[in-house]
Amino acid sequence: MIPAKRIHTVEEYYFSRKLREVRGLVNAGKNIINLGIGSPDLQPPSIVVDALEESLNDEMAHKYQSYQGIPELRNAIADFYQKNYQVTLNAETEVLPLMGSKEGIMHISMAYLDEGDEVLIANPSYPTYTSVTKLLGAIPRYYDLHAANDWLPNLDELEKQDLSKVKFMWVNYPHMPTGAKATKTFFEKLIVFAKKHQILIINDNPYSFILNEHPLSILAIDGAKEVALELNSLSKSFNMAGWRTGMVMGKAEHIQHVLKVKSNMDSGMFYGIQKGAIKALSSSKEWFSQLNTIYEKRRKLVWEVATKLQCTFDKETAGMFVWAKLPSDNTLTSEQFVDKLLYEKSVFITPGSIFGTQGEGYVRFSLCVSEEKIKEVINRIA
Ligand SMILES: Cc1ncc(COP(=O)(O)O)c(C=O)c1O
């Protein structure tokens, strides 16, 4: 059977391929320490697990669920946005629960993109924006991010270009992989830019509670709902990556378009997961402070690892990664650098180049590993 042409527009996801190799090394007896992926190793709040367990005997537990999520979940998301970002949302019309924000990237793209439409995507950025765009026959238009501009897009430069075919623009602050943070002033400028050029902005915001004192939503900007959507997720904020819970928020009309696609693709989120998500979203600020105390300690140790590798890095970042520049005298590509560390020291980190050409010359360390293991990494490379 010949697969669809679109399958040739993408490659197997880097981690899908590389982790197979890492598993092979583990099976061959290597004690690999994985500082590559951002899959939280810590537990969700215990009340979340309890809520899931308790829900299993509810009458609703095993039935098909609402396409829009149960009302309590939408209310919990709206309350969470009010409490943490000072954003007022109509839980009925402006909130749509998702099975992880990754699926939202596809749903939003399917709702808005026709073949040949252009999409502004940061270089470097999360590779899924590009692959989804290509799978739909739309065209990625990369805007380069630079350390010198705090990894923020240069909107003045963008305005000099022909943007007439651009449908929407992905932004993601706090930014993965660099950890850069947006400011309110930047978001304000972005909204003005979006209105002027009739471009829908989507801020993908899964990292705003990790090592970040001032969580910011693009929807907090006056008039943002007209031209912006926001994706968010419980994966990192509540250590629930495998539960697959996320959400998209924005103006009712936009949410309706996304729902139209999504309701044709799945039949609702498992009830128990929704019950757990409701509990997670009602967590107090202490949840984040205890989580961030752990990440802070780990990050200090990862800074040591990076320093030992003669890499340089910015300490004023958010999120669960350390983004580090390779030594100035290094002659290897970031992928070669990563492979050398993997084969010689049994330590896996992520090459910056998988996030785009602007990521070449950088590597990304994950904080989803215990202090003990990071100390072991320090010993290995000493
Ligand atoms: C920038 C960014 N967006 C979205 C996602 C997907 O997260 P989720 O688990 O909510 O699908 C990730 C996951 O690593 C990410 O880094």
UniProtKB/TrEMBL annotation:
Keyword set includes Nucleotidyltransferase: no
Q: Which UniProt keywords apply?
A: Aminotransferase, Transferase
Pfam families according to UniProt: Aminotran_1_2
- Superkingdom as given in the UniProt entry: Bacteria
Cofactor or coenzyme needed: pyridoxal 5'-phosphate
GO molecular function (one): transaminase activity
Show where the Aminotransferase class I/classII large domain sits: 31-381
Please report the name of this protein according to its UniProt entry.
Aspartate/methionine/tyrosine aminotransferase
Natural source organism: Kordia periserrulae
